[in-house]
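Issue: copy button drops trailing tokens. Both records pasted manually instead:
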Amino acid sequence: MSRLRTHTRTRIHTADQPAAITASDVPQLLRLLHLASPALPIGAFHFSQGLEFAVECGWVRDEASALEWIDGIASGSLATLDLPVLERLRAAWRRDDGLAIRSWNAFLIASRETEELRAEDRHLGSALLRVLVELELTTELFPLDAPNTPSGVAHASAFAFACARWNVEPAACSQTYAWAWVENQVLAAVKLVPLGQSAALRMLHALCARIPLLVERAHKLADSDIGISTALCAVASGRHETQYSRLFRS
């Protein structure tokens, strides 16, 4: 299979002279902090993944129920679908295996149970690829000028692409992706329930301790075991698509 063309060189101009650095010159931790930052302009804060309807109908009403809701989705979807597919996507990007990348990307988007969740995944994926272009990291596998591809690009596909090109270790890639998801869900709960900052800190502390276990569980899954078991989240997302008053995108 032909190599997928990418460009990973970044130029920094100083007052004295331009200096060229490569991705390997930047510590992995800083790369990961960049990818996980809420300031990353991909619009993750626009989406609640059904949490807004869960609050509207009373399923989530306080700190305890919000923590239970987020932890449940992390256990029944993030650890059993997103993270194992992310791991496979990262490995495929390292091999430049375009067929495997497209296959897992399509599988991930097809696994989203509502139009809202599929639209969110495509939005975050394409937005992240545009951010990576600004960092001079590009791929021809998912051209940004052709948005009407059969499945689009999933967020995990773009995330795995960046981690593969920056030589981020598999566990660090998965942990960072999980942290970004958890943080976004907690921030959504803060707005919707609503919750105070102290409650958010307690929730993040508890969920942070769960992330290594979720990543370990994802790593052990065989291809045939990948899937989701979050029916109530799917109901909430589907109902949110027609919710009369909402803060988050549908």
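Record 2 (pasted manually too):
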Amino acid sequence: MVRIEFPPQRQEESEPQRDLELTCMSNLLSAVEERVYFKDLYSRFLLVNAGWIAACAPDRTPAELIGKTDFDVFADRHASAAFRDEQQVIRTGEPIVGKVEQETYGGRAGTWVSTTKMPLRDERGQIIGTFGISRDITAQVMAENAMAEQAVQLTVQNERLRELDRLKDETLRDEGTTGPAADHCADVIERNAKRLLRLVGDLLLLSQIQSGKMALEFRGADLADIAACAVDELRPEAQRKHIDLALHATALPRLAVDPTRIAQLLGNLLSNAVKFTPDGGLVEVRLWREAGQVVLAVTDTGIGIPAADRERIFERFFRTAVATRQAIQGTGLGLAITKAIVEAHHGTITVSGDEGRGSTFTVRLPMRPT
């Protein structure tokens, strides 16, 4: 084995070595995406890295933050909690590892992070402050919350189905297996079973979307035909409410889309339009070509969407205040799925209209020939 002999380090190299260590640490802090900070005994900032600045104070420089505290950056509630944690670390010398907390700000949305806080020690081992590193886990927390909400929805629907099954048994026991009462009970059970089946299908699709596994099968399709079929499917419900359901489509070439998903998004938009439009109203579907795109618009004369709700209308499980107030049935999943389908086709979807004056959902898809 060959032994490599290194010359002994000279004393005068100690200062360059310190500079090298500082340079290495500076490069490391600049390269990592995680948020890293150093604070003194009073939780005042000594140093923050670029990742911390980008996430927490993009309008400030590191130099501006020296001597400041979390109260100069975050909302008071989060700043107070962070201060208590850091003082605990200083008092006990014990780190806080992997704490999940929400960073909240005064003028913008908060984020969820996993944070580790440790004592900052000098060369003699004395605690002179704290340092910490946090990682953004907002997407993970939102996905876990969505899955929890889905589980609650399934539990509620299962309880409803069990109640229907109990009522069915009681009806059949009291009224027999034939007659108007038994027929009505069977109809109720069938409607709720179909609604439960749709809910389960929506939840499964949402799980696929969240995991990035929503499969699409692109092939040549006539969007006008898809729109006509979707309109025909909703026509009986529209007629029951005396709603005029109209389709206006211009001739378009066959495009590369997933026909099943396009039919699903159209069905969702039409179902909502009919559901939220009072008796005697109008629902109109228009399809045309514009500036290299296919434009699909669904307009209704329904209850409309308050301005405050329009930004959240495509969120999972979100229901407008009007829908809740009027006890209009729904799970808040349809528009979230619709938006995911549109984006999977590299398109966009927008909504316009005011409360009490109807709504228009506009989908724009690129002209992708077969």
